[in-house]
Amino acid sequence: MAKIEVNKQLEDIKKVASLNEGKNLKYCILTMGCQLNENDSEKLCGMMESMNYSKTENLSEANLIVFNTCCVRENAEDKLFGKLGEVKKYKEAKGTIIAIGGCMMQEKHIVDKLKQSYPFFDIVFGTHTLQEFPTDLYNVLCNKKRIEDVLDIDGDVIEGLPISRDDKIKASVTIMNGCNNFCSYCIVPYVRGRERSREPKDIINEVKKLAEQGYKEITLLGQNVNSYLRNEKEKGIEFEQYEGVNSFATLLRAINKIDGIERIRFVSPHPKDFTDDVIEAIRDCEKVCKLVHLPLQSGSSEVLKVMNRKYTKDQYLNLIEKMKKEIPNLTLSTDIIVGFPGETEENFEDTLDVVSKVNFEQVYMFIYSRRVGTPGDKMENQVPENIKHKRFDKLKQLVESQIAERNKEYVGTVQKILIEGRSKTNNNMLTGRTDSNKVVILEGNDNLIGKMVEIKVISEHMWYLKGEIKWQNIHLWCNTIYKLKKNIKIVFCFIV
Ligand code: 5AD
Ligand code: SF4
User: Fold this and answer.
1) Ligand 1 centre from 364 Cα, in Å?
2) 112-166: per-residue pLDDT in tens?
3) Are 252 and 219 in contact (CB under 8 A)?
4) Ligand 1 centroid vs 336 CA: distance in angstroms?
């Protein structure tokens, strides 16, 4: 496997750390895009913290500002250029180092625009050079020269970077990178390279370490998680089997056995690669959540063909039928693009039809955005903006009405939720999620954080449910009291 260990980079981390020692320097990171990018940002944070920068959310007090960009849709570009306009004044006032990395930097026209309109940046790095960030930073600090470090390659697997995670309960673990599918609307294969999977041993050891650190929920990440190790097998690239892992299904089964981990999620699988062994693994593994995110993109077979998705409307619906038969309590979420070139009203009706039939738990809806370099961008039959927006609103209405109906069905039911912490909008309440990823808020003590508890749903709201803790969680109450006063616990449990 083309795996890179980062020994040289770790040396450069030490060099920058000693340059920065005692200076009380701060960094601020702005992340755009998907969970994979967020996981990359956690690695950037790990590197920066190892280089003696501490984190701040305040751009004005940062000595180093890092943008981790996304280019899947156009609005991310507007966001980057807007923010760059804002940070220019900090650069001018105090010489803040500005570094821009991620997917967008793999696009030549964007880097050209940066050089022309925002020439004050210090470092540009791409998706294949994230691990070079300490070296690039060291060179900027020593030579005060701007650095462009972007490679146009298929990509490697990088192991051994430090990581600083935001959350203490839930962690993301990237299992593979890149994409071989070339959906005709999507820029990802051009900016993230070809599919490459991490060694089973590296993934399993990372999850075991997370379990030891007290993490309870793991989300496995990849552009196409269910083709994990496919490229390696097809190309005869050697990998070491570890704990029986030689596919995505066997990886799920191996992670399911790790003590301490209570929930496993994964994003995103591709419907065309959803094999029976994966369905069986979801069914059999009690820790694997029964919510499956299955990107639909369009409900029209005609549009799906032009999108190069390699499945039809019926195949998608049949797959869901099969999954529902096999997996009790299955719930589904999806991604949908409206207004792909050539999409007719009738094609769009097919999308509405699939949404009505499947009754998704959650739908992530996107208006088609032209991406330079993709086949979709070259198509002549682009859908006018006003029609795209009209269709988007219609889809949104349908989705929201379905969610409202589903929410009502939750009221009165008992749900297992993993308590994640205090609610960001109401500090008096705890927040957690159901297996189906619904947010639940409830009253409770801090010692419930990180615990799996049974709650009864008492009311529903559009984007969350309200719950109350069930008496079956008595062991947790005992624990609280134990912490307050050891002796009372015995008496209390005795009475119960
Ligand atoms: N325009 C709109 N949405 C897109 N996506 C990917 N490319 C585009 C595009 N050009 C959506 C897809 C994908 C999700 C991550 O982003 O629905 O599943
Ligand atoms: Fe993009 Fe399609 Fe690859 Fe997903 S499968 S990353 S949508 S090209």
Assistant:
1) 10
2) 999 999 999 999 999 999 999 999 999 999 988 899 999 888 888 999 999 999 8
3) no
4) 8
